[in-house]
Design goal:
With about 260 residues, the chain is mostly beta strands. The protein has one domain. The protein is built from one helix and 22 strands. The strands form four sheets. Strands 2, 4, 5, 8, 9, 10, 12, 15, 18, 20, 21 and 22 form a twelve-stranded mixed sheet that branches. The chain has a four-stranded antiparallel sheet with strand order 1-3-7-6, with no helix packed on it. Strands 11, 13, 14 and 19 form a four-stranded antiparallel sheet that branches. Strand 21 and strand 22 form a beta hairpin. The termini are far apart. The N terminus is likely disordered. The protein binds copper (II) ion. Copper (II) ion (CU) binds next to loops. InterPro entries: DUF4198. This is Nickel transporter. Keywords: Signal.
């Protein structure tokens, strides 16, 4: 995968248009639920580490949830919304999903390719996020069979700040070695009712993107320095490299929640 990963990584840095990278968000505010209820999900294409500009999403190709091995399509329930970023507005997608039973809910999004005009190329970030109800784990560690995906090796809704998070990157179900993965922290607040990021950043963004790389088994590990929402984007790991006659970077994104033990 090295020969694929290096140009894709360089491309992604060049594409971002800011010091930090774009990340496809698949956000829900509370990833460990005690009681049944409607859970807001928000799909936003953004630059979370520096709370940069937000980008228009096209209509998603697929959105589904897997619960106890059963896949449910959610794309029909999505509503386009106007998302307010710190600097601009863009089209995002929203839905409220009813959680009733105990267990792990794994959400997966295949967005439509995003055209980055400045680079004359497309980006498609295939994204997963997790929530649990009732403290009963039921399958967070299983792959979903996506074209490319990160399979968590630590419980993704309960990562420990000061500990580590590891994931295994798969491309068409096989470990993807030597791929660069960018790491970001959700550096602002989210108002899911208003469909808006906060105006402020919560900390100074690091001067350049945080980067790790998968080993021979496709595994990466990151020491998680603080609580909050962390995203990992492994770049160009998907099997499709071209869309509409142009270059496509098909990336795998995962979101995890880190808590402090205190
Ligand atoms: Cu961008």
């Amino acid at each position: 995968m090295t020969s694929v990963a290096v140009p894709a990584a360089l491309l992604a840095v060049a594409l971002s248009g800011s010091a930090q990278a774009h990340f496809q968000l698949l956000y829900t505010p509370n990833t460990m639920l005690d009681t049944p209820g409607d859970v807001p999900l928000r799909l936003v294409f953004a630059h979370p580490m520096d709370n940069g500009h937000v980008m228009d999403m096209g209509e998603p190709v697929e959105l589904f949830v897997v619960f106890r091995g059963e896949k449910t399509d959610l794309a029909d329930a999505l509503e386009p919304v106007s998302w307010t970023g710190a600097h601009n507005q863009a089209t995002a997608y929203a839905l409220d999903y009813r959680v009733t039973r105990n267990g792990d809910y794994v959400f997966a999004l295949i967005p439509s390719p995003y055209f980055e005009a400045s680079e004359d190329a497309y980006i498609q970030q295939i994204t997963k996020t997790y929530l649990n109800k009732g403290a009963m784990p039921t399958g967070w560690d299983e792959p979903l069979g996506l074209p490319t995906e990160i399979v968590p090796l630590n419980k993704p809704y309960q990562i420990l700040a000061g500990g580590t998070f590891s994931g295994q990157l798969l491309s068409e179900g096989e470990p993807a070695a030597g791929v660069e993965c960018e790491v970001e922290w959700l550096n602002t607040t989210i108002d899911v009712a208003a469909n808006a990021f906060g105006a402020e950043t919560r900390m100074a963004a690091p001067p350049t993107p945080i980067v790790t790389r998968t080993d021979a088994n496709g595994v990466f590990t990151f020491g998680v320095p603080k609580p909050g929402v962390w995203g990992f984007a492994c770049l160009g790991s998907g099997p499709v490299t071209e869309f509409d006659g142009k270059e496509l970077s098909q990336d795998a994104v995962i979101w995890v929640n880190a808590i402090a033990l205190e």
